[in-house]
Design goal:
The structure is a homodimer of 204-residue chains. Chain A is 75% helix and 0% strand. With 204 residues, chain A is mostly helical. Chain A binds a DNA duplex (30 and 30 nucleotides) through residues 1-2, 4-7, 10, 31-33, 41-49, 52-53.
DNA sequence: TATGTTAGTGAGTAATCACTCACAAGAGGT
DNA sequence: ACCTCTTGTGAGTGATTACTCACTAACATA
């Protein structure tokens, strides 16, 4: 009846199924029965591949982390110049959310916030890593004279990640009725125009 | 054994209990049994006051809406001058999140995102109303020459709400290890300094 | 072809969920 | 004291949850 597959393939299928269902019915509503049906397995088969539901979530988080970091790497290697690098990083993050729309919800799921501290650590580390890359890119922009030097790179990084998160929240709550990446990058340019202003360049 | 109380008081107690528990164990993890125990009632007593759990959530949303709007009103009446008005609005929002820390989680709960469209409408309306107040305040700031006129007030409002949400996310994920209002207002001033830059004042 | 390993199943488990129902008891008016 | 409305309870409902167990069938290797 059912196709027998290698454990590796099955795990990947299950993780993909969780991500799809987390978006459709919510991360916390998600039951192992739902996952099994989505993948085309019996419910106990899930536990053949993951010892607990928490372990399954951890695998999902690691999959997300992998894809996010890959997106950042690609953005940074392809971009030329400090402004392009910043824009590519922001764009990569927006694209990742657009392709994995369950991401914001997972950030606030009880699984992450309450039940699964390990999951929380993974995402905390991810956000921190993104922040670090942004700070580095912003320092580059400041050195190139593309961003005024009288604001701390850390604060700028926070403003930019906030921008991404804010757009993502509006996108999620607004039934995803506008193109996330496009709107996000438009606002990014607005913010960058503010940061590029010449006043204060020769501070101190 | 248990204190008999008026329905009005009990409803308020139950709503307060939901808000507290939503923060402690997550909005979706929350069961009517938990709520009952928190208030000191039997579990069926909850359904004496609210016909369904969804109705209970709606009452919670209306309580939140009431308090948020009251905070905005107070902020706007007490503030003098366009800058103070903007700052007071942002501060009120930060304070509301700080006092009701379950707020961000509720925004992404399955109850709101999936199960309870009415709840979703309430919060969507709330966010829209806040945005409108911000836009009005920003127009005032632009008229007073406190904010440059070559950026659209709508975009500025989005940037500022994003700032609030971004700080709130960092605060939530970071185990609330920094003072939310203080850090939020600090970043607000950073952003306002960028928006105050003189370049482009005599546009058009 | 024989054998050990691994991916799968069907039938359960105890716990928990929102919600119901018949009934008890406090409070106010007369 | 009596009546009535309202707030409460104890016991129970069927549905759903994560997870287990005994067992089977597909595969790789010899």
């Amino acid at each position: 009846m059912s196709n027998r597959q290698s454990a590796e393939e099955r795990k990947a299928q299950i993780v993909a199924g969780v991500l799809r269902l987390a978006d459709e019915i919510g991360p916390d509503r998600l039951s192992t029965t739902d996952v099994a049906r989505a993948v085309g397995l019996s419910q106990p088969a899930i536990f053949r591949h993951f010892p607990t539901k928490g372990a399954l979530w951890l695998a999902v988080a690691e999959d997300i982390a992998l894809r996010l970091r890959a997106g950042w790497d690609e953005a940074e290697t392809e971009a030329t110049g400090p402004h392009a690098r910043l824009k590519a990083l922001i764009g990569a993050q927006l694209a990742a959310i657009s392709e994995t729309p369950a991401l914001p919800s997972i950030l606030f799921s009880r699984e992450l916030q309450v039940d699964n501290p390990a999951l929380r650590d993974v995402f905390r580390g991810l956000l921190g890593a993104f922040q670090d890359r942004l700070v580095a890119a912003i320092r580059g922009s400041q050195a190139a004279g593309d961003v005024r030097r009288d604001v701390s790179p850390e604060d700028v990084a926070v403003l930019l990640t906030s921008l991404v998160q804010g757009v993502a929240i509006r996108w999620t709550l607004g039934a995803r009725s506008f193109p996330l990446v496009q709107e996000g990058l438009r606002l990014f340019e607005v913010q960058m125009a503010l940061l590029r202003s010449t006043e204060g360049m020769s501070h101190e």
